[in-house]
């Protein structure tokens, strides 16, 4: 602990695990795994990176994330202030978003 406390990186979203059932029944989504963004915290790294609710996060730095737990595991491998490249689906098209992680408030 360099800071005298634990400093965790923060993305600033709320998400929902995508399952086959969620993809088919609730959202008619183009994928059957990943994390759908349900909320973006105002002033967060995700808002700064122009991530919006409804986008689906598929990968963090090339590592597939099938759930919120996977997403958190990959983000927590990094440090606040570091960049992460997220592969997301936006309007049925894949794009790469670079996010500079912040310290968890």
Strand content: 35-45%
The secondary structure category is: alpha+beta
The name of the CATH superfamily reads PDZ domain
Instruction: Give the total of domains.
Output: 1
Distance between the termini: 17 Å
Give the count of helical stretches: 3
Enumerate the spans where pLDDT stays under 50 for 5 or more consecutive residues.
Answer: none
- What is the C-alpha radius of gyration, as a whole number of Å? 14 Å
Count of β-strands: 8
Which percent range fits the helix content?
Answer: 10-25%
Order of SSEs? EEHEHEEHEEE
What's the level 1 CATH class? Mainly Beta
The CATH architecture can be given as Roll
CATH fold-type name: Pdz3 Domain
| Global mean pLDDT | 91
Overall spatial form: globular
- Major beta sheet summary: 6 strands, antiparallel
Question: What does this 3D model show about the protein?
Answer:
The chain has three helices and eight strands. The two termini are 17 Å apart. The model has no long low-confidence stretch (mean pLDDT 91). The chain has a single domain (9-103), classed as Pdz3 Domain. With 105 residues, it is of the alpha+beta class.
Provide a concise account of the structure shown.
The chain is an alpha+beta fold and about 100 residues long.
Ordered list of secondary-structure elements with their pairings:
Blueprint: E1 9-10, E2 13-17, H1 20-27, E3 35-40, H2 45-48, E4 56-60, E5 63-64, H3 68-75, E6 83-90, E7 93-100, E8 102-103
Antiparallel strand pairs: 1-8, 2-3, 3-4, 4-5, 4-6, 6-7
Search tags:
3 helices; 6-stranded antiparallel β-sheet; globular; 36% strand; two-stranded antiparallel ribbon; 105 residues; 19% helix; alpha+beta; Pdz3 Domain
């Amino acid at each position: 602990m360099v800071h005298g406390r634990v400093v965790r990186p923060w993305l600033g979203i709320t998400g929902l695990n995508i399952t086959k059932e969620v993809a088919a029944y609730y959202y008619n989504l183009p994928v059957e795994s990943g994390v759908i963004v349900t909320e973006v915290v105002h002033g967060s790294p995700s808002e700064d990176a122009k991530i919006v609710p409804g986008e689906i996060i598929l990968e963090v730095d090339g590592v597939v994330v099938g759930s919120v737990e996977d997403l958190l595991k990959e983000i927590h491998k990094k440090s606040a202030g570091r960049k992460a490249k997220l592969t997301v689906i936006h309007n049925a098209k894949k794009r790469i978003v670079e996010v500079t992680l912040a310290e968890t408030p």
